[in-house]
């Protein structure tokens, strides 16, 4: 059983599925999907560094994950199959910190995905914001 966080960090990145059956949370380089009643765990595996943020689209069909560290990697997953459908190296970014799908309501699913990180050059203190269109993500 992989638990939430560890002694030096709090779990600040916890998601519930829209139907309330599962919670999801990052644990180092993987994302854990745990059934609330049975506590059965399934995993989203593919990152090479600590997963720093996760987000669902409005109907919980797509899961977006980003990782910390020098490679600004975004992954998009089909939630139902836990299959990674897209891997993006966020241009000019490292240490990705936040992401979310655009404004939506519960019956709609936004096609905008916003990712925030820092610039690659240490001497430049700049924030990178990228917006991706996930409308045709399969």
Map the helices and strands.
Blueprint: E1 15-16, E2 22-27, E3 30-35, E4 41-45, E5 51-56, E6 62-67, E7 73-78, E8 83-89, E9 93-101, E10 112-119, E11 127-133
Antiparallel strand pairs: 1-2, 2-3, 3-4, 5-6, 6-7, 7-8, 9-10, 10-11
Q: Helical element count?
A: 0
Strand order of the largest sheet: 1-2-3-4
Strand content: over 45%
**Low-pLDDT regions:** none
> Sheet with the most strands?
4 strands, antiparallel
- Separation of the first and last Cα atoms: 30 Å
Shape: globular
Pattern of helices and strands: EEEEEEEEEEE
Mean pLDDT, to the nearest integer, reads 84
For the CA atoms, what is the radius of gyration? 15 Å
**What is the number of strand segments?**
11
Helix content range of the residues, please?
Answer: under 10%
Tell me the structural class: mainly beta
Notes on the protein architecture:
WD repeats lie at residues 44-87. Keywords: Repeat, WD repeat. This protein has a domain at 47-133. The radius of gyration is 15 Å and the shape is globular. It has a four-stranded antiparallel β-sheet with strand order 1-2-3-4, with no helix packed on it. A four-stranded antiparallel β-sheet has the order 5-6-7-8, with no helix packed on it. The chain has strands at residues 15-16, 22-27, 30-35, 41-45, 51-56, 62-67, 73-78, 83-89, 93-101, 112-119, 127-133. The protein is 0% helix and 49% strand. The termini are far apart.
């Amino acid at each position: 059983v992989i638990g939430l966080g560890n002694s030096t960090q709090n779990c600040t990145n916890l998601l519930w599925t829209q139907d309330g059956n599962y919670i999801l949370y990052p644990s180092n380089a993987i994302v854990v999907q745990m059934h609330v009643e049975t506590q059965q765990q399934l995993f989203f595996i593919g990152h090479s560094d600590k997963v720093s943020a996760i987000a669902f689209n409005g109907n919980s069909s797509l899961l977006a994950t980003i990782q910390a560290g020098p490679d600004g990697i975004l992954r998009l997953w089909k939630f139902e199959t836990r299959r990674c459908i897209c891997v993006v190296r966020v241009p000019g970014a490292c240490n990705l910190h936040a992401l979310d799908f655009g404004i939506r309501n519960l019956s709609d699913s936004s096609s905008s995905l916003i990712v925030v990180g820092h610039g690659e050059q240490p001497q430049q203190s700049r924030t990178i914001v990228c917006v991706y269109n996930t409308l045709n993500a399969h």
